[in-house]
Design a protein that fits this description.
The complex is a heterodimer of chains A (605) and B (347).
Chain A (H helix, E strand, L loop, with lengths): L1 H6 L3 H4 L16 H6 L4 H31 L6 H7 L10 H37 L7 H21 L29 H30 L12 H32 L10 E2 L2 E2 L7 H35 L6 H15 L14 H13 L1 H15 L8 H23 L2 H7 L3 H31 L5 H27 L19 H31 L65
Antiparallel strand pairs in A: 1-2
Helix pairs in contact in A: 4-6, 4-7, 4-18, 6-7, 6-8, 6-9, 6-10, 6-16, 7-8, 8-9, 9-10, 9-11, 10-11, 10-14, 10-16, 11-13, 13-14, 14-16, 14-17, 16-17, 17-18
Chain B lengths: L1 H29 L2 H34 L10 H34 L15 H30 L7 E8 L2 E6 L34 E3 L3 E5 L4 E7 L4 E5 L4 E5 L5 E5 L5 H8 L6 E5 L11 E7 L1 H9 L4 H5 L9 H14 L1
Parallel strand pairs in B: 1-5, 4-10
Antiparallel strand pairs in B: 1-2, 2-3, 5-8, 6-7, 6-9, 9-10
The chains are: A mainly alpha (605), B alpha+beta (347).
Amino acid sequence: MSDVIIQGPNVAHAHAGHADHHDHDHHEQHFITKYIFSQDHKVIGKQFLVTGIIWAIIGALFSVFFRLQLGFPNDTFPIMEKFLGEWAKGGKLNPEFYYALVTMHGTILVFFVLTAGLSGTFANILIPLQIGARDMASPFMNMLSYWFFFISSVFMFVSLFIQTGPASGGWTTYPPLSALKEASMGSGLGMDLWLISMALFVVSSLLGGLNYIATILNMRTKGMTMTRLPLTIWALFFTAVLGVLSFPVLFSGFVLLIFDRNFGTSFYLSEIFIGGKALPHIGGSAILYQHLFWFLGHPEVYIIMLPGMGMASEILSCNSRKPIFGYFAMIISLTGIAVLAFLVWAHHMFVTGMSPFLGSIFVLLTLLIAVPSAVKVFNWLTTMWKGNIRFNVPMLFAIGFVSLFISGGLTGIFLGNSALDYHLHDTYFVVAHFHIVMGVSAFFGMFAGIYHWYPKMFGRFLNPTMGYIHFFITIIGAYLIFWPMHYEGIAGMPRRYYDYSAWTSFNKFEGLNAFISIVAIAVFFGQLLFVVNFFASIWRGRKVTTQNPWGSPTLEWTTPIRPGHGNWPGEIPEVHRWAYDYKDDGNGNDFITQTTPLKPGEESH
Amino acid sequence: MSGTLTIVLILLVFIIVYQIGKASEYATILRDEAKVNKQTNRLMAWLLIAFFVFGIWGIWECHQALKGRLLPPSGSVEGVEYDAMFEATMWVTGIVFLATQAILFWFAYRYQASDKRTAFFFAHNNKLEIIWTTIPAIAMAALVAIGLKYWFKVTDDAPKGHAVVEIVGKQFNWLIRYPGADGALGARDFRKIDDANNVLGLDWADNKTKDDIVAQNGEMHIVVNRPVKLVIGSRDVIHDVGLPHFRMKMDAVPGISTTLWFTPRYTTKQMQEITHDPNFVYEISCDQMCGKGHYSMRGTIVVETQAEYDKWLAGQKTYYAETHPEAAPAAPVTEAVADTAKPVVSK
């Protein structure tokens, strides 16, 4: 009976009379259904998170390897041979494999960590808990979403070990480089595996995204109107919408690429002479792929950013003990960003020979995104103004998020302007820009979320001392690594080079490259500190003893400390007010939970 | 052995840090927790403000250390305008950066938790929202206007009287073709490519190809103060002609032909004096990942006076003459046009 209640969409209200079953539904589930093929959104969220963490370690380790090459092009590192074998014979990275590492670093971090690991984790954990639902609209689809991601991960992981190496055409895998086996070693089997893995990833993402949207729209508890939702949910909602509308386009791009690779079509290929012979393909367009790719590729960066924005909003407000400033402006700006996200993709393609007039439209729309982004920043700042700020670890990461979002966002104004991109395109300026904004800043949003909701996930706290160390290592390291990179970019230093020593224009940054590499390696170990903290605290962390440790008005803190499947024993609470009522509740608390009815004469927000 | 030792050492450090973390957690509970939390809160507020101050100092130091390594003054006339625009954008974003970061860290410090205050319930204010929606919108409109003016100028047709040079990327070097005396690049067809004697697939049936000059050493010669239009192509995958000293770049895409033009301002020699570097050369970098040799796909540009250019040109053989030694006697380029045209007609 209880299973029916949990799994049927929206039945929670209909069966409210039976809800008392939840008090004693702790019948032992088998280990496999409880932890592996689980349909509990909280467990699935943790599965996404742990898989994401494992991928993040792999992706970051790859960056350590190629940073060693970039920082010390004349040295050998025998330890690399231990890890990479033939690919780093004598401790010197093979150029072919250098490009494979760069490609995998990008693919892993963008898709597996900051898409699946970020929105997969928090959409799963937070949506039902914060809107007052027992589970997702379709828990089974939700489970499939994780397992498609898992199979996709297996394919990508396997591709690391094949003889010709993984895909090596950059995370964007532009054809013809990625389409022709003759063009690069990684364009062989590695690329096939990459495409299979990514196609499965799209399936996973769609299954998840549709579920998140359906859940948010249909399964909010009584009284939880859309305008009472916490901003995390709004952000995750738009994230899912972006994914659902843009991933299929990427998929179509991949399908055409698979056809070009295997079935002799010419969607992307035209007039190519390679490997000593002219290929029969004529009439295709290599640029078509770029349009299809960036139609997802650009919304993708907002898929990565929005969850962090939502969580930072929540955490800044909670720890400033103040409502988020401009709740409606925040929703409108999220809407603006989500709409514009679809209309700016070609700013990645200003120098592809695309019509300059078309480019100019994209300049206009791209710089327009600065407006909602600026509104968000000013609202975050005003949220802190006259607050009573608690600097716990999540709050520090949320502040770091805002700082990095400003830094990385501002450099976007350079790159979004085609006239400036004309020189800066594909230089280290771009590398610095996107690493700060969608790399580190998004990671800060993710860390803030993990530190903040860890008590809800595991019933224990992460160790704060290690958290503080982690924060300062990461923010100082991030700025030390990426700030000077802007200078390399302004000097025109191209990205994705294996060695700069032959170039008189770029070899003057040798010392700087070594410095960046050393800091990057230190930051890598700093992140491992977080990993240790994360896993050790699952079993050894300080136990949560109060239901609402951060004093937050939102619904997830009205569940038991360790909520079972179904989240609330008894009835799902009814919501009476918005998510940010940080005011005196009359009992000495400085917040009022969403479940508290309005006082006589009190106006709702 | 040393590898194992390093790993053991790293593990040890992690264990120690973890134990310190745990110990401080227990200590917090043993001592008055509320008091410790207040101390920590104050400490963090201080650390954040210190981070900001040291950060600004670091930015200054970084600038001092690296500004000398940036590019020399623009080598193209158009690039001068680029640099001005870049600087203007830098000022706008720099001011916003400083202001917002200062406010962020100042608020963090100023409004750190205190028992004496309660947070100010301030949920919205439409006036403020309108102000900070409008100001960025106006600033962006200005930047778009300036940017597009420049963008349309440099992507428009090259000025009259410009020279034409073709540059074609292949894995992993640049092929350069000059139109020769007729001033026109002859037709080429990728199916006619032959690495031994027709690297660009020139169509010899087209008379315009007969006087074309092809350089395979990646060195391009152009004349100072004369606008030059690069016709860009690729033989295999996508490359990109990156010209950092001239502040522009353009992709080389197989199957389509792209262009880019600029007016060189300084000869290579002049630039050597400006930079006080006798080895200075204008470099062409490949800026679009093109495979394992991407990083070595280097070309150079020699900017010289008309006289120097003419002298250099006189020493060049047409590609037709180079690859058809029996058909065309080694003759100066200017005469070769007329000479080599004949045998084709007779065919």
